[in-house]
Amino acid sequence: MELKYLSFIVIFSLLAASASAATFGGRKALAPSPAAAADLGFTHLDIKDPKVIQLANFAIDEFNKAQSTNIAFSSLSEAIQIGKNFELAIAAVDNKDSNEYFFNVSVDKGVKKVTSFVKGG
Q1: 97-108 β-sheet, strand order
Q2: What is the CA radius of gyration of the chain?
Q3: Average pLDDT of adjacent 10-residue blocks, the chain of 121 residues
Q4: I want to staple 31 with a disulfide (CB 3.0 to 4.6 A). Which of 22, 76, 87, 119 is the partner?
Q5: Would you call 46 exposed, middle or buried from its count of C-beta atoms within 10 A (0-12, 13-18, 19+)?
Q6: What is the DSSP secondary structure assignment for residue 3, as one 8-state letter?
Q7: In the prediction, which pLDDT does 27 show?
Q8: How far apart are CA 44 and CA 100, in angstroms?
Q9: % helix / strand / coil in the chain, to the nearest 5?
């Protein structure tokens, strides 16, 4: 198993241990309460916050540069902060096809860097 999948697997494992239901990318997933999430070391972010959307667009731009593609941001379905790292689940459009992408973005002293990305299925 590749390391780039590890952080999402850990998060999904933590979410599966919770008792409250929420939607994630159109699928049902279990999500802890904000207090429980903080105890587990991560924070759910407001996906409508302009700063979070800006970070998602940064991730898409970096993906396009690295992959020589031209996908366009459509929506953000999940955003989680773990310390200086941000896990983002983003719907993006490429040639009228919508796909989900998972990004890990590190922000340290104002410097942003995409550390991993995975195209969902």
Answers
A1: 43-44, 72-82, 85-94, 97-108, 111-119
A2: 14
A3: 47 43 44 56 89 96 94 95 94 90 94 93 65
A4: 22
A5: exposed
A6: G
A7: 46
A8: 18
A9: 30, 45, 25
Residue indicated by tokens 């952080």: 7
Prediction pTM value: 0.68
CATH number of the domain that 86 lies in? 3.10.450.10
Overall domain count for the chain:
1
Task: State the Cα–Cα distance between residues 37 and 43, nearest whole angstrom.
Answer: 6
Nearest 10 degrees: Cα torsion 112, 7, 62, 60: -110
Residues counted in the chain: 121
Domain that holds residue 69: 3-119
Question: At 52, is the secondary structure helix, strand, or coil?
Answer: helix
Strands (E), the chain: 21-24, 27-30, 43-44, 72-82, 85-94, 97-108, 111-119
